[in-house]
Amino acid sequence: MIYVFLANGFEEVEALAPVDMLRRAKLDVTTVGVTGKIVTGSHRIPVTADITAEELQIGADMEMIVLPGGMPGTLNEEASETVQAAIDYCAKNDRWIGAICAAPSILGHKGLLQGKTATCYTGFEKDLLGAEICSDGVIQDGKYITARGAGVAVDFGLELVGAMLGKEAQAQIRASILCD
Predict the structure, then answer these.
(1) What is the rounded distance in angstroms from the CA atom of residue 147 to the CA atom of residue 138?
(2) Which residues sit opposite 2 in a β-bridge?
(3) Deepest of 10, 121, 132, 150, by most Cβ within 10 A of its Cβ?
(4) What is the pairing mode between strands 64-67 and 96-100?
(5) Residues of the chain predicted below pLDDT 70
(6) Which residue, among 97, 89, 102, has the nearest Cα to 116 in the 3D structure?
(7) What pTM did the predictor assign?
């Protein structure tokens, strides 16, 4: 199962484009409302999460987590004990972690990007403690996938698909949405 965390103030495109790409690939995706069942994005778009953070069972079915950026969404994610526990579980159990925009800063604050190549929204580079900063739109290093921001949200989603199912599946989804 792939869990995408939604916290009030999240960047809508950074959450929903990856969810869309992953679901097009027929992967099991559950959105998790960190701040409640109905979560309002940074552009005042309310989204109904599949489950709340209190309902999330952290364990063996957790194959990947995705952290959208946005403000104050990133801060709300980082303040969540559930999000922190999910990150810790994935890091300790060699599971995928995707983070876009400001959200890679959460991983940086935990020291998880030490020695990794990563990217983020401009201005958050200082928070990627120990990482080699790259300006590419999307970067995969080990089990960590980071992305710069909303402009690369579809590419980020496609990279998540590739991580889960391989480059052929990624290419099929890319072609199906006419993404050159």
Answers:
(1) 4
(2) 29, 64
(3) 10
(4) parallel
(5) none
(6) 97
(7) 0.97
Pick the CATH number of 2-170 from 3.40.50.300, 3.40.50.880, 3.40.50.261, 3.10.20.340: 3.40.50.880
Report the DSSP beta bridge partners of residue 139.
146
DSSP states along 40-109? E-TTS-EEE-SEEGGG---STT--EEEE---TTHHHHHHT-HHHHHHHHHHHHTT-EEEEETTTHHHHHH
What is the pLDDT, as a whole number, of residue 180? 74
Give the model confidence (pLDDT) of 122-145 as tens digits. Answer: 999 999 999 999 999 999 999 999
Q: List pLDDT tens digits, range 40-63.
A: 999 999 999 999 999 999 999 999
Phi, psi of 124 (to 5 degrees): -100, 5
pLDDT number for residue 179: 85
* Distance (Å, whole) CA 83 – CA 74: 11
Placement of tokens 């391989």 in the chain = 166
Tokens of 151: 């402009």
Residue 54 class from Cβ within 10 Å (0-12 exposed, 13-18 middle, 19+ buried)? exposed
